[in-house]
User: Fold this.
Amino acid sequence: MNNDYNVGVYIRLSKEDSDKSLNRESESIKNQRKLIYNYLKENKLNLYKEYVDDGYTGTNFDRPGFNSLIKDIQDGKINMIITKDLSRLGRDYIKTGYYVEEYFPMKKVRYVSLLDGVDTYKNTNNNDIAPFKALFNDMVSKDTSKKIKSILKTKKERGLFLGSRAPYGYKKDPLNKNKLIIDEKTSKIVKKIFKLSLDGKSNQAIAEHLNKQGVSSPSNSEWSSSSVYNILNNKEYTGCLVSNVWTSISYKNKTRIKRSQSEWIIIHNTHEKIIDKKIFDLIKKKKNQKRKKTFKMKENLLLDGKIYCEDCGSKMGISYLKNRGYYVLNCNKYKKNAKKCFSHYIKYKDLENRFLEYIDTKEKLEDYKVYVNSNRKLRIVQIIDE
Ligand SMILES: [Zn+2]
Assistant:
């Protein structure tokens, strides 16, 4: 037995690697394990522990198995690491290079990548080639990411439903998981939501109505104005599939960003509609008009966005009372939930007049914040740049 080394075996398999359409079966965990254990046996090496990341991409190093391997290196439990090849360690060439050339040597850890012939304790040409292989692996994963994206795009263009969950109102066809069929129970709720909106009810009022009736929502929590908004804006109820809406920043950074509408893929007549397209468009048009109107009315208010609730600190919203012909203020927190704060009902114009008594000129208005408490007292704060 070679007692100089306590070996950590590192095995990684990502979803892309197990994708059969990309012919990567050779990367299977079983295969990696077989190769490495043969090597351990032949070299009479002492296995300390096996670290496995199943389903983790190599494009970053935030993986539970890898993190626990690093911890064991730091705790001095292992001083040798074996992987099947460099790409198992990682596909980001800068970070892979950092571990192989800097971190492992610094920690006096020997690293062996079997198929690349890399062994940091032997002087071999393969070690010199390692950085290039790491770069190559990085390029492969960029290419894989492109391939997967294009396979997905083709599927989307064929009008296949690819989501993990059907939109509220539909269910996946038990005979074809890429097809949506109507869910009898929830589709009635969808129809009701559109009808209430068409009758002029606000999203908030619709949500309250549904909660009162005990209707279960898409997220299984209570209905809110935003969940109603999502239903009213989901074009898929008109019988089409909308995809390609979201993307990630890059193959390394998976933060989701929304694509511009021109890039969305919309395929019509992919499933039975719940809502007539005319009604869908009509509601959208109405909502847009309403939004434009209120925006215009608020445009010239001097203190819009500068007024805060003294009691809870949240902003005060300004709304126009059509029948009275004036603007009023109210705490946004109170508006959402009356139990959370107090009514601060106050005429906007009164507040503005009182504010203007305090300051001489309108010039540097952006430097001010106005707080109002439940007794309608003002506290004016001037923000002074340091
Ligand atoms: Zn408040």
In short: The chain is about 40% helix and 20% strand.
